[in-house]
Amino acid sequence: MTERKPVGFPFETWIDRQIREAEERGEFNDLPGKGKPLPGLDRHLDEMWWIKQKIESEGLSMPLPPTLALRKEAEEALAEARGARSETEVRQIVEDINHKIREAIRTGLSGPPLNLMPYDVDAVVSEWRGQH
What we know:
By secondary structure, the chain is mainly α.
């Protein structure tokens, strides 16, 4: 299929001929997914469908704006603190995320409003004690 289209040959006819000849030579016989429905035909596609599909197929995640990333990190830290093995570990986890939150409030981050305040370390420790 690397030959050039002959002058005066209609473009569509030339393409159709190239495909037909390739089919006759059996070049499409062993393609992956042959005879199977195309994936994703049943779902509604938005304008970013190809980006989302690439991210999913590569096992990546969409990057979050810094404020949302910090909110997610804070939620994960709080869950980690609740599952900590000792009170000292709970305090360390909460103090570490509180430092990041205070730094973000002081310097400002891009993205939607942060809407996040440092956690009350003693309240988290008290909750941890109640569960353990």
